[in-house]
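Q: I'm writing up a methods section and want to include an example of the input and output format. Could you take the sequence below and give the corresponding predicted structure tokens, formatted cleanly so I can copy it straight into the document?
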Amino acid sequence: AASDVYKRQAVSVQAMVFGNMGDNSATGVAFSRDAATGENLFNGEYLINAQGEDVVAGIRTPQQITIEGSRRWAKAQNVSEAERRSKYPSLEEVMPAVYKELNEIQHHLEQYFKDMQDIEFTIQDGKLWMLQCRNGKRTGAAMVKIAMDMLREGLIDEKTAVLRCEPAKLDELLHPVFDKTAMKNAKVIVKGLPASPGAATGPVVFFAEDAEKMLKEKNQRAILVRIETSPEDLKGMLDAAGILTARGGMTSHAAVVARGMGKCCVSGAGELQIDYKARTIRVNGYEIKEGDWISLNGSTGEVYLGQVATQAADLSGDFGQLMELARKYSVLKVRANADTPKDAAQAFMFGAEGIGLCRTEHMFFEGDRIKAVREMILADDEAGRRVALAKLLPMQRSDFEGLFKAMQGHPVTVRLLDPPLHEFVPHFEKEQRELAKDMNVPYEKITAKVELLAEVNPMLGHRGCRLGNTYPEITEMQTRAIIEAAMNVKKTGIPVHVEIMVPLVGNHKELRYQKNIIDQTAEKVFSERNDRLEYMIGTMIEVPRAAVTAHQIAEVAEFFSFGTNDLTQMTLGFSRDDIAKFLPIYLEKGILKNDPFQILDRNGVGQLIREAVFKGRGTRENLKCGICGEHGGEPSSVEFCHFAGLNYVSCSPFRVPIARLAAAHAALKEA
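A: Here is the clean output for your methods example:
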């Protein structure tokens, strides 16, 4: 019976070779290029009289294969040349003939496979045996260098070089990283979500104003630790080295803002017990007081005790060359979510072809502007609101001028005021009393107004276009600021491409009402200036009803921008700030394959996007469609946007290179 089975099966008989048959035998692992840096340097490790597992097990210290590698190792370990040669000689020195054969084989393998090779070998009694080879794993920096080097060497063509680089791995090149030596002794105290990549270290502070104060007085950037952040914390977040929160997911306020700033952030570290009054953190047996140092790894979500040394990212010429190739082969354009001229300049440097989302509310927290915003909110009538808005007008106009100048004629999409007004008022007694004093009104008036603004579900409450439709003077002020800024910049000879975006539309009538206000205000400015300029009016598709009635909305809107953060939240019925409580269990049980706030839910949210694009272009053939949610910088979501027929994606500045490479991948895969 056994022989009958074997008649029908292939049997492989493998002869064994042994690297532990004396001092003339060895085993090792090698790389045709440096997996850390990408340098074209054959390297690896070996052990005399050993089996393969011994090299990687860490029980014995392996030796380097090449003389060059051995000398570099000795220098790093502070070992003298004499000691190196006597105790840790390279394979090149110990077995020169075997090394010569191995070197020739690795070169041949790389030429054949046209990629960096990870090679395993055994030497039995002086004879070299090749065990296996595969394409080697590599860092982001090595990935780019190897691809560009092989392109220059003629091993691969441009398209292969682009496809050879994984978009997500570019993140490693763009942000500060921890020093590898310092990481050896780093002690992890808690792990949260890797909300915004990079490395940050600094003393702990618990309040945004303390982060500002520390930078101003001590020139020291702190780690801002909050249970959760709000727009009020914006200035402190900007001045901090990094942000750590106990609550919130990957698209919480802290995460989104930090990514936009290119600031390291760990969110949703639920084990943190933060005591604002005592100014302490308790976590896993540790107590950390204000002023104690911690370090954040925004790429892994790990939080370390104490100070861990960091080093700045280095963007080489190869990176720029790869980005040019990405632009050459992309169909989908890439814009940036940017709220300040500084963000816009950063995005432009990374190759953004416009701003896909300027959140105007972020501008309200600069300097003393918040006072004017609060004055508007606390006003008893329209006349009072207009007085406060008149103070904000020149500030907003100045900001928009900076954005238009920075983008040098590329399109700039400005979103009108979106958050509910309660986010702009203080919620603690101390700040409320200070506000009452500043505004010369009774404390009770402040508390009464704060209570009046409170909503059971503010994200579905009085916000977005609902604000502009109930208080048209807000839309008027913002429109005037945008149009006047554009005309001022145009006068200097810089071309301007303005797109005004109305948020949270779910009914075409809401958009029509807002469009009337925008058009009437623009016409007033044109009449005053005796000049005109072109502008577009569009909307953010973030309410499911807007997606399914897109044919009606496209009668009014000249462009759609999909706000996938809120669209995901409303379509799935998941709070993006509370999903961390059940997401790990859902992922573990296979109910969800991915976090839908990180990777676009193609079957649900994706279908709404496809339907909206189809219906919208059925009404308005040349309807421009883009995406400005956080998914705009995630590679697989960018690929979806390409195949869904969108014109562009928009993401935080530090994700622009990732999106550009992902867009090129999508186009090349389709071709």
